[in-house]
Amino acid sequence: MIKNDIALEIEKKSEFNGAKSLLIVETILGALKDALAGKEKVEIRGFGSFKVVAKKTGYGRDIRRKKQIHITQGKRIKFRCGQDLKNISTRP
């Protein structure tokens, strides 16, 4: 499913036209991006939560050159599935 598919679902289930429903999707996703960029935790009840976590520094291996490389510290987004979504995905 892509962003346009979500906008089409909003259009089907509401009175909004295509442009307005796409604007709603982009606004929601923009708010999520801004919150995560500010290192805030985003929680959507029944769906899940997103948070920014620090990635450790360490060493990896360049298998082409057979050398050890240094991996710098960074950030990544971690998603934890909500209970309602977990129950849907585990149904037979």
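the 2nd protein, sequnce then structure:
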Amino acid sequence: MDRTEAQELLAAVAAGEVDPADALDRIATAPYDALVHSLVDVHRALRTGDPEVVYGAGKTTAQVLDNVAALRASGDRAVLVTRAAADTISALQAAHDDVLVDGPTVVVGALPRPRGTVAVLAAGTTDGPVAAEAALTARAFGADVERVDDVGVAGLHRLIAARPALDRADCLVVVAGMEGALPSVVGGLVGTPMVAVPTSVGYGASFGGLAALLAMLNACAPGIAVVNIDNGFGAGVFAARVARRVAAR
């Protein structure tokens, strides 16, 4: 249940079309769906405006399918599945008609009408999977997305050429591994709200993304929010919320 569905239910009660006891039962029993293996939160959209998400890593295919089915039954919102295994993706495609896949990130159901724009920048091609997770997450959470790929600091002319996309966006997601310098450079070019994502891309001294994480936390450009290593999902949610608020105003 989201806010629109809750308003429709209350309006139906006011109009005498739904018995108040039935409405109370729907509201009281809806906060979560108790499956054998999970307590699926079906009221997250009502509380936060955002849908529940299924984290696929560590779950069996059957568990993911059960969670998605419960969420789809609770409302019309698309369901996002992150870090899904290949066999899980195949099973979701077999079980549902409307499935969008980008790497291990999956959306089941129609994407919402976009409000606001998020630009997702990837420093290098190898940062692409994390950037893709951020981009599809932002779309599932209600923002339009523009991708800007392979604009790392080793070739600054590529970033300068992408400047119009940075100016158009309501929020930026900047994804970089190696030394993690791209967010500092972007932060010195534009005043657009930004969330930086360190990736685990790099050689030995990158320490699995720790070097990029520390670089972003110590960026000399102000106004940069930073999420955890490889956390494209968290960045996509943050950016979509910013973009939606900007569009609403």
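The chain has a mean pLDDT of 86. The longest strand covers residues 117-122.
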